[in-house]
Amino acid sequence: MKQVDIESRRRGILAAIVESYIGTATPVGSRVISQRLRGGLSPATIRNVMVDLEEMGLIMQPHTSAGRVPTDKGYRTYVDSLLEPIRLTKDEESLILKLVDQSGQDLDSIIQGASRAISVITNVAGVALTPRLKKSVFEHIEIIPIDSSRFLAVLVTSSGLVKNAMLDSGEEMAGSELARVAEFLNQELNGMSLGDIKHYLARRLLQERDSFYAFLKKAIDIVSLPNLSRMEDHLYCEGLTCMMANPEFKDMSKARLLLRLLEEKKDLFNLLYEDMESEGIKVHIGRENAIKDIQDCSLITCNYKVNGVSIGAIAAVGPTRMEYGKVMATVRYMSEVLGKVLERLG
Amino acid sequence: MKQVDIESRRRGILAAIVESYIGTATPVGSRVISQRLRGGLSPATIRNVMVDLEEMGLIMQPHTSAGRVPTDKGYRTYVDSLLEPIRLTKDEESLILKLVDQSGQDLDSIIQGASRAISVITNVAGVALTPRLKKSVFEHIEIIPIDSSRFLAVLVTSSGLVKNAMLDSGEEMAGSELARVAEFLNQELNGMSLGDIKHYLARRLLQERDSFYAFLKKAIDIVSLPNLSRMEDHLYCEGLTCMMANPEFKDMSKARLLLRLLEEKKDLFNLLYEDMESEGIKVHIGRENAIKDIQDCSLITCNYKVNGVSIGAIAAVGPTRMEYGKVMATVRYMSEVLGKVLERLG
DNA sequence: AAGTAGCACTCGAAGTGATAGAGTGCTAAT
DNA sequence: ATTAGCACTCTATCACTTCGAGTGCTACTT
User: Fold this and answer.
1) Pick from A103, A238, A199: which is nearest to B265 by CA?
2) Does A104 contact B162 at a Cβ distance shorter than 8 Å?
3) pLDDT band at B284 (very low <50, low <70, confident <90, very high)
């Protein structure tokens, strides 16, 4: 069947264009492709195919007498059906392990190490979200007197993560009462997810009266302490510098938009939260992206799981022209590593 | 005395040049200065003075037929003896308070808020170092069993800051023994600075034998837990984006160096540590700076104190051409605010 | 019919004067 | 001592040209 032939030739040529452009950042002409594909096709033939690809919206010319550049749609087809998955080298894998592990047992350092590792391997910015603790499960709470009016509440989750918060009542307070509050919480909340706890206690509060009401209120105050309940998710972002070395950022005006995104973080948060809900790698290419400011950028995200539950996400952010194969491999591998490291920690 | 007159005229003109250049980022010519100084001096006169200033190394011409630009030495003279201190407006002060305070009681958020506030007010990058805890004083330690082999050590300092670390012994461990260790530490270390504790215990260890040796060893292990002893100082840096809007960074090549500095942080750490030791505002202008990569930048640092002890530093980093008056006022004010907020927290 | 060679054509990048204007330094006049 | 005037220098800018990469089309080959 001729049809099959011509189709697969098109695919080959598209792949060659994308890869060449990724490598050189220069619009790629028919001659280059003709040499790159050893198939012995002449530039003229390539040109004919290029016209087709352009009509299909997969590539475009920046101006009449220039080579072709992939469109977002072109990258999309490349990522979805042309790119054969690559594996990281042993060296790269061990570098990742080293960067994530050296950070010791500190949760934040690990996450930061992960984002740094992504950036080091791929040369684009690495981003990592700290585990979203609302999904983790209450294990127990401890209340420690510091002085006459201040207490320290320490919350331990089933995954072994620990949060603490100072409770400054302002007034003198009987330690014994707080001990009873803690005991109560430990009995009631065991096995509940942190996200549900506040709702649960609020509901119970409606049913109670009088002395127990006050008691329960105090318990809620403790659980609601900002540092315990507002699980301040952090977003670590590393590798700006090396990403900015890419020629697409040589005039600051474009770079600024991306810089702002990575500094303000809010939009990025939302996007990662969303992607965290589903399994595996997601690729957002250029204008597919909802965030306006980075429509010349691509974003590759992946959730990570601890004990089978997806509790966070990592990402790589860079210009649309990035090494998708390598970046995807890195992000995927990192997701696994991060899951394992966090499980061991828990 | 004519001498005084001519000297003060020079100073006035230098100040005018510096201020005009700071405002416009354009080499400033004699005509501009003549208009700016209402003194009714003609451009020609200004020019004569400019020649003097240039001979003194305070200003320079980028090229023959351009206006003058301050040299590092020019900025230095301006900062040291021409700049009259300005006060922030009420609005600016209250904005600072808001940004530092809204962050709740979380230490890191406060420090981060401080660096953000600096950047928002001054339009250059704001940097803030978390308090250096080695100087803070041991108050007490608490050891909480989590499960059969894991314990949580919680350390409270006299300033009310709390650190915790997980102790994973690997083996079953009697809670009662750890309780005795904690009791021992609380008696021995009360009032000691965290920096001295390890040395002290190590010295005691040399004198002890047998069963008490093992006991003491266990205590040292606990105190040496990374999260307790390695007071991982963080460096927060905010406001890259708005700083990058300055024309000096319009070609990325120069911006990259600064970006790297702010991302790698190590050099900046050292510099801030050093400046933390002395009191008040320090201004590092251009090539005065030891760090090579930012010799086109200025750095304004200030220590901050809690209960009279200098425990951290904040800074503003931007192009040499920055509004020194405003930036210095901001940094100084922020240093006070930060001290007060942290005292209240402690 | 599919592929290819050849060729005219297009368009941007890079180079070349020419011009305008901002700013200077110097000199002579006040 | 100050300043007006003027010649001079240098850059930024614009129009113009040239060069070359790359194309699309047509005619030729297999």
Assistant:
1) A238
2) no
3) very high
